[in-house]
Predict the structure.
Amino acid sequence: MGAGGEEDLGSCAGRRHRESRGKDEGNDQDSRTRHEGMIAEMRRVLGRFAFALLVAGATYNPTAYSFYAWAKSTGWAWRPPLVFVGVVLLIGWVICLRLTLRSIGGIALLLANAFLAALFWLFADWGWLPIDDVAAISWIGLVSVAAILAVGMSWSELRRARSTPSR
């Protein structure tokens, strides 16, 4: 109230402005926190993609630098270095597949593979894929497998992050 019993509208308007600014700053902070959380989540998904690509690509790729090519060049002889690397790759595959199966399940894994296979078949039928180039098809397959595994390994966390109510 002002000097003669009149309401001081200036202080009331100022208080409302400060309160709304505080709410906006809070919303900006929430938005910034959500944005940082999304970036962190994307980094984790990309890390899982890199791990899956490493495991799949080290197992087989169309170059001479894969476990398959190495084992084939030795005449499939069981030597300690070959066996050691094979066991390390097996551990990587178990990690990827176990996390994926636990997260999305076997049916979803099968459906994701079937979807991509049908999609690539459609693209090849339209002439968009170089079906005569085995190396290109192999790399497309490797990236697809890695993408499916990365999404599968991240699915539980992605679902949990999306179902958590925002403030």
In short: Residues 56 and 142 are 6 Å apart (CA to CA). The chain has four helices and no strands.
